Amino acid sequence: MGCFCLKKLGHKPGYEAPINLASETPFTVNEVEALYDLFKKLSSSIIDDGLIHKEEFQLALFKNSNKQNLFADRIFDLFDIKHNGVIEFGEFVRSLSVFHPNAPEADKIAFLFRLYDLRQTGCIEAEELKEMVTALLCENNMSLSEDVVDLIVEKTMMEADTKRDGKIDDEEWKEFVKKNPSIIKIMTLSDLKELTLAFPSFVMNSGVSDLQQPVKN
Amino acid sequence: MNQPKIKGRVGKYQVGRTIGEGTFAKVKFARNSETGEPVALKILDKDKVLKHKMAEQIKREIATMKLIKHPNVIRLHEVMASKTKIFIVLEFVTGGELFDKIVNHGRMIENEARRYFQQLINAVDYCHSRGVYHRDLKPENLLLDAYGNLKVSDFGLSALSRQVRDDGLFHTACGTPNYVAPEVLDDQGYDGAMADLWSCGVILFVLLAGYLPFDDSNLINLYRKISVAEFTCPPWLSLSAMKLITRILDPNPMTRITIPEILQDEWFKKGYKPPVFEEKDDTNLDDVEAVFKDSEEHHVMEKRKEEEEQPTTMNAFELISMSKGLNLENLFDAEQGFKRETRFTSKCPANEIIHKIEAAAKPLGFDVHKKNYKMRLESSKAGRKGNLNVATEIFQMAPSLHMVELRKAKGDTLEFHKFYKNLSTCLEDVVWKTEEDMKEVK
């Protein structure tokens, strides 16, 4: 019954059946099918191989495939769960599920911590924070003197690094986010709630068997 | 597949009785089993959709309907599909059809008709502003909710009903062209907005007269009457109502009255209340309200802040989260997405920024409320989604560098963007970089 005909649609390598992905994430099968629509668009913008390459990711975010950006790189690395340099469909859906409005807040907080832990040491060091602030200012063409950047970083470290060891650990991070909830706003994408309306193409190719949605005339 | 009715389940919806049936769709009552909310489930057969080459159109129309959130338009909640069917989940209303009122109680008094007509025009105007045309406004599409508010259905889903007419065979079977504008009958390509307006005029006539302006058992005669707008107003119509109807039922779309002109019409304006929007989707409203709520508790807190005379400082992580690389919303087709907030940076002192915004907003018709470094700008003019209401806050990024955030608290997002454009030209000497500049960099 609920078997998906891979042969019929000729899916590219890296494809995973929506029904499986739906069972692991807050998404319904139809929503995963709608996400596939978005994924197809993103993964074919430069090379149509069913995989999102770094350049394609940059193109989607910045409308420019050569735009280097520290934060986009970090997101890409976290989405690339298998660390093989590309984002596969399953990785795409699983990673985006953290951004779902209904996803647990703890997951969002942890994801962002890993993202900001540039060198993956298990802590966000003051140097990493400075690197990120500098990158943000540079991205927006804002030139501030190094003293001012240090000041911004120090001030935040004063508040976040309660153990005063020059780095923010997992525990301190959770406390800091609790006091500054606006920091995790970027971890919620309201668009994920309206997927079926945003990418309605799936309606013609849905593989959901009629037995799963039994409506008789 | 004509089997006996079986109550089933589609996704999270419990499906009940059939409440309507058309050429392409069957509509069933259903209930969201998570929230208990009743919905109308429109069920289409993919075979039929494909046979009539409507697939592309339906997809496009669903995507457009996503943009329509108006209290007088039936909401499209979500779309589902299986291998053979498409399910469109729509808002369900219980007040029946508007025209049942005419059928049961005869024509309406002018005040009652005017209220429905005002709601109809609001709905139509709002959809048009988003590039969505109905093209098939007729009695069956005008529903009422439990409170007697008008709800226009099938906006943007015209493919489902129109296709029938395009297909010559169904032409007459489709029923009455009584509500169709002359230029549509002419089949020469037409302006959707003007054609919708004509239909609104016919609807207004029926509400006030109790019968159709154009009617004839002979189709040829009917077409002729419509094409020259041959109708007679009943004697009980007020002069101003008659004047308005005549301006709408102008067979020439070029000289026909427009919606902005209707909004200024003497008959229309009487007792006019702009639509009330329940902005359920707008997040972050509470904090805006809280700031301006005059609770004592708040006063105390604000006082303490005032002593410092400093705007809130943005911490390093808040700063970082402004990066475009972290804003995954851009993956979801940024083209049509207008954001509800925008930002710019300024090297001016915070007080000066406040003064400049105030000076710029007032001539644009905004009331300005200030509290420390937060402001609320309220438009005195009613827009398409009620009065525009903008919350602004100034943050300190670094000494001598401020970030100004403008957020739409209420009103229409398109109007918010227009306002921001106006405002930013007045603030040229204050703005160092706008979000647009930030985006366009390299």
UniProtKB/TrEMBL annotation, chain A:
Keywords recorded for this protein, A-Z: Calcium, Membrane, Metal-binding, Repeat
The protein's assembly and partners: Homodimer. Interacts with CIPK.
GO terms of molecular function: calcium ion binding; kinase binding
Family as reported in the entry's similarity comment: Belongs to the calcineurin regulatory subunit family.
Any single biological process term in GO: calcium-mediated signaling
Keyword Heme: no
Chain ranges of the EF-hand domain: 67-102, 104-139, 148-183
Cellular component aspect of the GO annotation: membrane
Coiled coil residues, start to end: none
Compartments it resides in: Membrane
Organism the protein comes from: Gossypium darwinii (Darwin's cotton)
Cited function: Acts as a calcium sensor. CBL proteins interact with CIPK serine-threonine protein kinases. Binding of a CBL protein to the regulatory NAF domain of a CIPK protein lead to the activation of the kinase in a calcium-dependent manner.
Protein name, as recorded: Calcineurin B-like protein
From TrEMBL, chain B:
Keyword set, alphabetical order: ATP-binding, Kinase, Manganese, Nucleotide-binding, Serine/threonine-protein kinase, Transferase
Cofactor(s) this protein requires: Mn(2+)
Broadest EC class assigned to this enzyme: transferase
Reactions performed catalytically: L-seryl-[protein] + ATP = O-phospho-L-seryl-[protein] + ADP + H(+); L-threonyl-[protein] + ATP = O-phospho-L-threonyl-[protein] + ADP + H(+)
EC number assigned by the record: 2.7.11.1
Biological processes, Gene Ontology terms: signal transduction
Name under which the protein is recorded: non-specific serine/threonine protein kinase
Domain of life: Eukaryota
GO MF annotation list: ATP binding; protein serine/threonine kinase activity
